[in-house]
Design goal:
CATH architecture: 3-Layer(aba) Sandwich
Distance between the termini: 26 Å
Largest sheet: 9 strands, mixed
Oligomer: single chain
CATH superfamily: Ribokinase
CATH topology: UDP-N-acetylmuramoyl-L-alanine:D-glutamate ligase
Number of strands: 13
Structural class: alpha/beta
Radius of gyration: 18 Å
CATH class: Alpha Beta
Helix content: 25-40%
Number of domains: 1
Low-confidence stretches: none
Amino acid sequence: MDLIKNIKEKPFVVFGRAGIDLFADPVGTSAEVAENFRSDIGGSSANICVGLCKLGHSSSLVTSVSDDVVGRFCFKRLQHYGVDTKYIKTISGEYRTSLALYESKIEDFQLCIYRNNAVDFQVTNADVDFVDYQAFGALITAGTVFANEPSRGSTFRAFEHAKKAGLPIIFDIDYRPYSWPSAKAASDILTRAGEASDLIVGNDEEFGFMAGSYDGGLEKARDLATQGKLVIFKMGEKGAITFADGKEIRTGIYPVTILKPNGAGDSFLAGLLASLANGFDLKQAVLRGSACASIVVANPGCAPAIPDHSELEAFLQTHDGPTPV
């Protein structure tokens, strides 16, 4: 596949949001009574970038952050993990970098995300025109960028640049209802993005949303695959179905004691792409992505919980799995 050939040779360029994560400490503490919080970079696209870097691959993030202490924190944490920040724009005024506050516990888990005047929606045509697409092997985006303008239009413009440069487009549906003006708008626009992409990753609910009903999600994934796309349909504890070249590849998961539910999707995608770039076949790459997801949900935080190469290999050698399908 051209997609796999490309990502073996060049870095990744990722479009989407960066934010600050605050998670209650110690493990098991409810956020509303916590006296201490740990902090790190957050946001789906930033997490994907971090995961790729931790697994040995270069990534650049295209986004905007606010000209304040939170924006500077995100900028420095991205650099800490080795993410290329030259395409990140700082914006003054009332726009704000998003904040996620959550807990490391499953029972009565709480996640609160502040997206007021979200600065990452302020990526413009000029910003995406500035990117050197020839320097990259693939373009990755999470669906959040399409929820508002100008980032919606500018990201579709980036798709056009990527196609002209011969870059495959990798799309994580990442549907977040709170970001969208309406469910109808989200369904229409995310479907458009999926149809323009080469690799589409989402869970059963997200594909169901694109199809207009939960029960239609699997058929939606199959339909997109008939258009020549590589599609990964995630089903939580039931594993995943990968549609590729007219085949359906079913894979299980690596069972763990779940500490928190968030961060799995970002880690999965980073692990999948890093493994493809390292020469693993598609089935093994999906399984390694699943292992990365299991590691993240079993540990506090998102970016700090994403494994590096040695941690991933140690996990694969010591944990049961994958589950049978």
